Amino acid sequence: MYLNKAFVYGNLTRDPELRSLPSGGNVCSFSIATNRVFKKADGSKQEQVEFHNVVVFGRQAETCAQYLKKGSPALVEGHLQTRNWEGEKGKQYKTEIIAERVQFGPRGAGSRQGEGGAPFAPNEVEEQKAPKEEGIDYPQEDINPDDIPF
Prior knowledge:
- The chain has helices at 59-67, 122-129; strands at residues 6-12, 17-20, 26-39, 45-57, 73-87, 90-104.
- It has a single domain (6-131), classed as CATH 2.40.50.140.
- The chain is built from 2 helices and 6 strands.
- The protein is mainly beta and 150 residues long.
- Residues 109-129 have low confidence and may be disordered.
């Protein structure tokens, strides 16, 4: 059995482009930037950025074009596909992720999405994930594990 699966999480490098196919369906294309940080042999940190071309079809293409924009974070799940064509420079190739699912990243208030900046500040994410404890009334008695029915 063979596997062709791609997962990438990053920020869009350009606004999505929505087009219509001759069959009447929609197709949306955009690019996502991801990065990784690693240590070189001399111990210094190095950052490497990769750019991924993404293609989305159908209803999800319309949704991506409507809600995503340059700088938006997104998680893309799909498979890799390489196209080739004869161009001015001879045979040309382009590898793309054909998205099966696109999940939009967090959108915090006051985020700088669309300006090419960071999609959210780190403290905004902490505030969104951390529950407010001041309004919760916890029981004073301890829970006996023997009382749990499963």
